[in-house]
Design goal:
One of its GO terms (molecular function) is 4 iron, 4 sulfur cluster binding. With 187 residues, the protein is an alpha/beta fold. The chain has 7 helices and 4 strands. The longest helix is centred in the middle third of the chain and has 19 residues. Bound molecules: iron/sulfur cluster.
Length: 187
């Protein structure tokens, strides 16, 4: 029997641990794909990429990295639409994953964005399902949030960098206005 190959979009290292283990337990041969032009500033991008590389090494996960870091392009696409910025942010990353999955012959794709309890879970699912139909590659949905604690503990044990905000400069500023809530996109 041929093993089915899945491309897993990784938003960072810590969020990838539980989804990776779950998908492998389901029989998928998983490859990671790091593409996150939303992360600002550049030093933060580097720290999250480094954590993703550490998870990749420790878990023997082949990793594809798109490190064409262009915060200006990201900001141009969300400025004056700041309250809706997550739609663009999710879409651009999910679409990139779906296109690479299709081009490289993967059987399906998924995303670690479905792991965070603080993200807009239903919106991510909706965008991914729509992208899957448009690009023509199956999307695997799992509610990875149920493994939040397990993933969190594993990340702590690995000693990898765990971010304090969602990613863009807006979320970095907002964490100070929301009682210190971490990793939270706008309402
Ligand atoms: S809050 Fe998070 S999901 Fe929303 S635009 Fe910023 S980085 Fe992207």
């Amino acid at each position: 029997m041929t093993t089915r190959r899945l491309l897993l979009h990784m938003c960072c290292g810590p969020c990838a641990i539980y989804p990776l283990r779950t998908l492998r337990a389901d029989g998928w041969s998983v490859h990671g794909f790091f593409y996150n032009p939303n992360i600002q500033p550049c030093r933060e991008f580097e720290r999250r990429l480094e954590a993703a590389r550490t998870v990749s090494e420790r878990e023997e996960l082949p990793l594809i990295v798109r490190d064409d870091y262009d915060p200006v392009e990201f900001l141009r696409n969300v400025v004056f639409r700041e309250q809706q910025r997550c739609v663009y942010c999710y879409s651009v990353r999910i679409e990139a994953a779906a296109r690479i999955a299709r081009k490289s012959g993967f059987d399906a794709f998924s995303t670690t964005l479905l792991y965070s309890k603080l993200q807009k879970h239903e919106l991510i699912e909706e965008i991914a399902r729509d992208t899957s139909r448009r690009i023509g590659v199956p999307f695997i949905y799992r509610d990875f949030r149920q493994g939040w604690r397990e993933g969190h503990e594993a990340a702590k044990m690995m000693g990898i960098y765990r971010q304090q905000y969602c990613g863009c400069i807006y979320s970095e500023a907002e964490r100070y206005h929301r009682g210190g809530k971490k990793d939270r996109p706008p309402k």
